Amino acid sequence: MRSRRDFLRTASLTGGAVAAASVSRVAMAALPEPVLQTKPDTMPPLVPNTGRPYNPVVTLNGWTLPWRMNAGVKEFHLVAEPVVREMAPGFKAHLWGYNGQSPGPTIEVVEGDRVRMFVTNKLPEVTSVHWHGQRLPNGMDGVTGLTQPPIAPGKTYVYEFVARRPGTFMYHPHADEMVQMAMGMMGLWITHPKAKHPLIADVDRDFCFLLNAYDVDPGAYTPKIMTMLDFNIWSWNSRVFPGIDSLNVRLNDKVRIRVGNLTMTNHPIHLHGHEFEVTGTDGGPVPKSARWPEVTTDIAVGQMRQFEFLADELGDWAFHCHKSHHTMNAMGHNVPTMIGVDHQGLAKKITQLIPDYMVMGERGMHDMTEMEMPLPDNTAAMMTGQGPFGSVGMGGMFSVLKVRKDQKSGDYSDPGWYKHPPGEVAFEWTGTLPEPLRSDVQTKGATATAATSKGNIEVQIRKPVGHAHH
Ligand SMILES: [Cu+2]
């Protein structure tokens, strides 16, 4: 247990010394000890040892908050506080979150549970927690000013309600939302059914994560909080590829994935190699008559989708947001070390010496994935990630579903890359090629660049800076 002096010291660092002084020792002692997690690894499912049994979820690069039973009530302790989140190896962000991480821990309860949430505010400003999607008494809904006073820095509030319906939910502040969500304050809430439910299938693997977005300048640590739409870090549970763990399953597992969107734009989430059905939203399970097969489901702002499929195709299947600029990280070429490099003229001179010299972007952008670009100390490469065949050329909202015959039930560890059977990998054709038949239309100017080039127009690697139309 931390001493009162420690608590005061932390509080004064965050500007809450006055409020902290009014937290009584008795009140603190009565709280469940807060559990912290600082590792960004995917934690194994937390199998319940008290309360009603259920099949736990696995939070991608996250964890489930342990609870204590107190006279039949499930008590959790959330601590809203500044955290350091490793978003990918070599890239750390200074965020706000809960219990040492952003997103906060996943809360797992069972339909009918009475739940008591202690929320301690160690932020430098007021906060509250809204329990998105829950049926609850109005005064427990967590809307600052509307249903409760703000939780001042250093104060602890108590929320108590019965988890009335099973489903996939989330929690986030309803106080200074634009800043607090831009800083990473959010978490998942799963209410498991108390008995066999006609619309909720038993599954072998149950994954969950939140979509979030940040605006962090390459080399900086803290997101820009005034950003409304122009985010540059597109993350799952505040991780970006190649920092997002793969989803590792056994062949013929029934798999459920639950995704919530707390970014400021929609994300069409796409799975390769399988069809899935959306089986639930934050409104509850979807009636069977309203389900259809999909390979992409769009998740709008503030929505949750849970979808299910049979993992019956072996391999390493890409799983990603289908907005291609959401599978990239911050633009490395905007960093100061690259600004001022004038390719025009320079390229002309160089091509006189080296005819093959490539201006970046002239032949597409894939080459950038293998280019050794000078990057500032704290950032993730724009498009990266090594696969068995070279660079995957991705960042941001991208992961891999790994389906294996020998992945043991309950084993979530990474089995490594898929070993393709002979003859099952696309290969280079080295035989002769027949001359392609062309229709009589003009074939000149196949690319816009070629059509407009008078010899000195080169494609610059400038990506759009205005992202107002995501
Ligand atoms: Cu997206």
Which structural traits does this protein have?
single chain, disordered N terminus, 30% strand, mainly beta, 470 residues, eight-stranded mixed sheet
Describe the protein's architecture and organization.
This protein is mainly beta and 470 residues long. It has helices at 4-13, 17-20, 25-30, 177-182, 343-353, 448-452; strands at residues 58-59, 68-70, 73-88, 91-98, 107-110, 114-121, 130-132, 156-162, 167-172, 187-192, 205-214, 233-236, 247-250, 253-261, 267-271, 276-281, 284-285, 293-294, 296-299, 304-311, 315-321, 384-387, 390-394, 398-404. The strands form five sheets. Strands 1, 11, 12, 14, 16, 17, 18 and 20 form an eight-stranded mixed β-sheet that branches. Strands 2, 3, 4, 6 and 8 form a five-stranded mixed β-sheet that branches. Strand 22 and strand 23 (390-394) form a beta hairpin. The chain is globular and about 80 Å long. The two termini are 46 Å apart. Mean pLDDT is 83; it is low at 1-24, 332-341 and 445-453. The site of copper (II) ion (CU) has 6 residues, from loops.
Q: Helices, strands, pairings?
A:
Blueprint: H1 4-13, H2 17-20, H3 25-30, E1 58-59, E2 68-70, E3 73-88, E4 91-98, E5 107-110, E6 114-121, E7 130-132, E8 156-162, E9 167-172, H4 177-182, E10 187-192, E11 205-214, E12 233-236, E13 247-250, E14 253-261, E15 267-271, E16 276-281, E17 284-285, E18 293-294, E19 296-299, E20 304-311, E21 315-321, H5 343-353, E22 384-387, E23 390-394, E24 398-404, H6 448-452
Parallel strand pairs: 1-11, 3-6, 5-10, 11-14, 13-24
Antiparallel strand pairs: 2-3, 3-4, 6-8, 7-9, 9-10, 11-12, 14-20, 15-19, 15-21, 16-17, 16-18, 16-20, 21-24, 22-23
This protein binds copper (II) ion.
